[in-house]
Amino acid sequence: MQFRTPIDIAPYDFKIDYTTPGLLVGSCFADRIGMRMQTFKFPVTTNPCGVMYNPYSVAHCIEMLEDGTARTQDELQTDGERWFSFDFHGSLAARTPEEAISKINQAIQIGHEALTRADYLVLTFGTAWIYEIRKTGLPVANCHKMPASTFARRRLSVTEIVDRLAPLIDRLSERRHVILTVSPIRHLSDGLQENQLSKAVLRVAIDELTRLNPRTVYFPAYEIMNDDLRDYRFYAADMTHPSEMAADYIWELFSKTVFDGQTQATMAEVNRIVTAVAHRPFDPTSPSHRKFKQAMYRATATLSERHPEIDLSAELKYFAS
Fold first, then answer.
1. Can you spell out the DSSP letters for 29-62?
2. Which among 61, 60, 37 has a CA at the least distance from the CA of 47?
3. Which uninterrupted H or E stretch holds 87?
4. Model pTM?
5. Are 29 and 184 in contact (CB under 8 A)?
6. Could you give the C-alpha distances from 281 to 24, 92, 276, 298, in angstroms and in order?
7. Of the candidates 155, 241, 166, the residue with the CA atom closest to the CA atom of residue 201
8. pLDDT tens-digit profile of 90-131?
């Protein structure tokens, strides 16, 4: 008897390995995937503009990174305590305009370099709802807790999303593969009905985008969470984000989809080294721990020689200390 409905993910015509740099942009689901890839030492950059939830803001972020032009202080806003830009996440805000614009321009530089190098992009959309500044009609990436009267809230249509993203993806995919996902994280502040409608709009828009561009594929993170796992026990305590167990499962399926067997074997070796670094012994000066570090140094050095593209310098330094 089958008590689950596992998702059948068609194989992609490309694979990611340790020689393929990537850029991930979008919701906090992109952050979670990016952090796991960074833990396994993949050359990835995640959300240089900060977390972005709606497709318009993701597109605008990519365009800013493509252009690479520094922003100026006259573009900033303030709530009286912090300076920020509506185009960037609150993590790039600061108490002075000089500090805020410095953080923003550093992020643009990092993102511009990452996009230039990237062989693939992962774009994750969280919601089709957007907030537009009433005075200008411009959508914002983050409201920065400004008064609700500052914004008009509306839901993007499938046509709007496709028209906004299709030309950008066509340009980006000339030498890159693009992976699109719908974040499985629920936006309960929108209301359950509105959240479901929003996710449906995103899913239909992505389906159209993948039909229009053969170098664009879909990873079904949303379906894995809602149709494969399909149980409240797989949500964290906030009933919004996937639990660690669910995140591990989605990551496992993502790994099987985008990494070949050799890369997964290398990941296992990297994981052993990273886990060893995180280990905290009862007695760091004991002979047994010294032997452990010597053995791990040899294993790390061997892996580094076989895969010079993987940066294990910090781990080598730790085991040599």
1. HHHHHHHHHHHTT--EEE-TT----SHHHHHHHH
2. 61
3. none
4. 0.93
5. yes
6. 35, 37, 10, 19
7. 155
8. 999 999 999 999 999 999 999 999 999 999 999 999 999 999
